[in-house]
Amino acid sequence: MKVLFGEGEVRRMSGEDAGAPPVRTRRRGAALERAIYEATIAECAESGYGRLTLRGVAERARTGKAALYRRWSTPQDLLLDAFEHVLLPSEELPETGDLRQELVAALRRMADALTGRAGPPAMVLLGDLLRHPELIAVFRTRFIEPRLEAIAEILRRAAERGEIPGESASPFAARTGPAQVMMHYLLNGTPPDDRAIEAMVDQVVLPALRAGRRAPGDP
Questions:
Q1: What is each CA distance from 148 to 19, 54, 91, 110, 185, in whole angstroms?
Q2: Parallel, antiparallel, or unpaired for β 23-24 and 10-11?
Q3: Architecture in CATH for domain 88-211
Q4: Where is the HTH tetR-type domain (predicted)?
Q5: Model pLDDT, residue 91
Q6: Which of 39, 55, 99, 165 would be a feasible disulfide site paired with 158, CB 3.0-4.6 Å?
Q7: Is domain 10-74 given the CATH code 1.20.1440.60 in the classification?
Q8: Burial class (CB in 10 A: 0-12, 13-18, 19+), 148
Q9: Rounded to whole angstroms, how far apart are CA atoms 53 and 112?
Q10: What tens digit of pLDDT does each residue of 102-150 get?
Q11: Within 13 Å, how many C-alpha atoms sit on residue 92's CB side?
Q12: What is the DSSP secondary structure assignment for residue 165, as one 8-state letter?
């Protein structure tokens, strides 16, 4: 079998797919990668994590299966990369020296991740993942905890500047803003817009932080 990669070239699958018609695509590089990631999220949301296969993703993304096997050895590896690139960009947020600005920027980035085509199926997928504790553990360690730590760092800097009490710079307090974004999404079916995010920060997050009260069981 010969598989060609490049703009306008024909991609064929091997083995059980030998009789399938060729798939033509003009995507390459970042465009192809994003198509694979979006197809992974959609395929998993539709079929379930337990039935996710590299072949199914390749067919949905309209690309060659060999392209996936060269980079990912298992569907789980591909799924985790898909979450990282499509839903949860981990670039550092800029330091502005202003707590409100930094919190609004952090929550806006979270809302933006839910706005794309992969956002709705990803929410369905997260429910399915609850039945797979081993994957939830990896997901929490790889994605959730680092991003909550980034918000906790925003709070620590604000405490050092005197904007909030020191006890407010805690892991528990860092969850307040993200919880507001997710609750808005679950109740409304859409991510919060800029106005809603600013209201969350001004009416909920900042007042709670400035109160400086430690919740029971807070680490």
A1: 48, 31, 13, 11, 18
A2: antiparallel
A3: Orthogonal Bundle (1.10)
A4: 30-90
A5: 65
A6: 99
A7: no
A8: middle
A9: 28
A10: 999 999 988 888 876 667 777 777 777 777 787 788 888 887 888 899 9
A11: 5
A12: -
Residue from 132, 88, 95, 137 nearest 113 by CA: 88
Helices 54-61 and 29-47 sit at what angle, rounded to 10 degrees? 120
Domain with CATH 1.10.357.10 in the chain: 88-211
Contact 208, 169 (CB under 8 A): no
Check: CB of residue 165 under 8 Å from CB of residue 212. yes
Residue 95 CB: number of other CB atoms within 10 A? 11
Q: Where in the chain is the domain with CATH 1.10.10.60?
A: 10-74
* pLDDT value at 170 more than 70: yes
What's the whole-number average pLDDT of the chain? 81
Burial 2-14 (b: 16+ CB within 10 A, else e): ebeeeeeeebbbe
Tens of pLDDT, residue by residue over 1-52, are 333 333 333 344 444 444 555 445 455 678 888 899 989 988 988 888 888 9
Helices (H) and strands (E) in the chain, counts: 12, 2
Judge if pTM exceeds 0.85.
Answer: no
Q: What is the maximum span of the chain, computed from C-alpha positions, in angstroms?
A: 68
- CA dist list (Å): 157 to 96, 114, 154, 162: 11, 27, 5, 9
